[in-house]
Amino acid sequence: MAKEFNFKKVLVFSPHPDDLDFGCAGTVAKLTSEGGEVVYCIITNGEKGIHKVKKFPKEIIAMREKEQRDAAKVVGVNKVIFLREKDGELEHTRALIKKIVKAIRQVKPDIVFSLDPANLNFDSFGRFHRDHRVTAEAVFDAIYPAAGSIAFFSELEKSGILPHQIQGAWFFSAAKPDTFIDISRTIDKKVEALRRHEGQINDMANLEKWIRSRAQDAGKKKKMKYAEAFRSLTF
Ligand SMILES: [Zn+2]
Q1: 18: CA distance to ligand 1 center in Å?
Q2: Which domains, from first to last, does the chain contain?
Q3: Does residue 224 carry a pLDDT above 90?
Q4: pLDDT at residue 3, rounded to an integer
Q5: How would residue 25 be classed by pLDDT, with cut points 50, 70 and 90?
Q6: How far is the CA of 132 from the centre of ligand 1 (A)?
Q7: Which of 153, 124, 133, 166 is nearest to 9 (CA)?
Q8: DSSP label at 185?
């Protein structure tokens, strides 16, 4: 395992299918290629984020889940949990936090990857999509203090789902990153994973250019050809 990874098992939360591929698929591919284990948890169905085809929501949901499963396989991830919340209408509720806590307690990761709850600048439409903000905050509330505390969601304990304390969190797409992972050897896999989200992508050639230039920018400071950036928090 590369020295930047002092953990083995990661649970990645994503508001929609594809957000995590944009944010951290290169790091995930690196982790799994070095013997790490990664599980994905997708919060909403993403049934509204479709450009290419006109379909019924049920068909879109099935299509996006298949695309996400295929994208996961490209980077060595075999397990994807779908929480199936409504796209675009995510609410920060006890019920949502409980679903997230349940996933953490069942998967028992060393650390969690998620969107950064500190991103609140509202300076980009895509980045500050409602589901992104709500996911970031709800995951934060789930990882501290709920997931590791017996005082929260005691009803889960009755069904054998016991508290699990994670070691920390890495936030992708962070406005102020402090952790940089060299993905020069896995950027092709990241692009390949993003290709699997066919229903989302209008112009793959341009998207690939954008992905590569964003990864170049992230790597510049650390003299890496391509990187992904995170803000990390340790307990
Ligand atoms: Zn999204």
Answers
A1: 7
A2: 9-234 (3.40.50.10320)
A3: yes
A4: 77
A5: very high
A6: 6
A7: 166
A8: T
